[in-house]
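Checked the freezer inventory, then went back to the computational side. Two predictions to log before the end of the day. The first one is the construct we discussed on Monday; recording sequence and C-alpha cells without edits.
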Amino acid sequence: MIDVTPAEPGDEIERLRALVGPSEVAYEALRADRDAAQQITRRAMAETGELRGRLTEMSVQLSRARQDQEILLRRADMAPWRRVLDRGRRRWSTSVVPYVSRVADRFRSS
C-alpha cells in the first residue's frame, strides 16, 4: 500500500495552494489594488467632467466673441447715424422687448 499522508502538514497546504491559487494575503492585496484603481478611475472621470464643463464654457464664450466681432465689423461699414440706430434697435430687441414681455406675462397670470 502507498502512504498518502504528507510528510509535513505545511507541505500539504502549500501543495493545495499551488493547485487552488494564491493565498488570502494575495487576495487582500488584489482587493487593495482594485480599490485603488477604482479611486483613480473616479478621479479621472471627475476631471473629465470638469474639463468638459470648461470646454462648453469656452465654446459659449467663443460664440459670443464671434457675434460681437460680426456686429463690430458690420457697424464699421455704417455711417455714424446708422450705428446709433443699429445700437438702439439691438437694445430694444434684447433688453426692452423681453422686459416688457415678462411684465405683461405677470399681469396676465395675476
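The second is the one RB wanted added to the comparison set:
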Amino acid sequence: MKRLRRYAIIGIVFVLVTGTLAHFLYEWSGNRKIIGLFVPVSESVWEHMKLLFFPMLLYVPVMAFRLRDEFPCILSSLWVGLLAGTLAIPVLFYGYTFILGRDVFFLDIAVFILSVLIAFGIAYRLAPHCRPKLSSIFLVCSVCILSACFLWFTYHPPKGSLFAKPAIGFCGQSFYIPGNCHADADM
C-alpha cells in the first residue's frame, strides 16, 4: 500500500501541474488546432474537464505498469478514478454556481483540485479490490468514448451550457442572460 500511496501522490502532483499548464498551452502554442484537441480552447466547463482527463490519461499507463503485479486491478481502478474525477468537475462547478448564482475564481481552482483528489482517491481505494473483467471492458469503452467526445466537441461543440462559456455576471437570477438586466445598460 505504501507504493500505491506514493504513486497516487505523484499522480496528484503530476495532474495538478500539467493540468494547470495545459490551461495556458493553447494560447502559448499560437492557437494550434492539434494542441487544442487536448487542452482547453475556450472557457467552457466541458473544455476545462480536459485539464484533468488528458494529464491523468498520460499518467495511467505509468502507474498501471509500475503497480500491476502488486495490484492486478490497478488499471480498472484508475479508469474509474479518471471517469469520476472528470465528471466531478461539472457536478462541483454547477453545484456551487447554482448555490452562489455566479462563478468564483478561487472556487474554480478548488473544483479542479478536489476533482483530482477524487480521481486518485477512488483509484487508491479500489486498487486493492478486484472487479470482474466485464467491468474493465465497459470502463475502457467509456474512456474511449469520452476521449472521442473531447476530440470531436473541441471544434464541433453541441448547444448547451456545458459547452458554452460560463455566465459572466449576476443579475438577481441564477445565471446572467445578456439583455435581460438593467446592468446591460452599464456595459
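For RB: The helical segments are 2-28, 33-36, 45-67, 74-100, 105-126, 133-155. Residues 170-187 have pLDDT under 50 and may be disordered. Let me know if you want it refolded.
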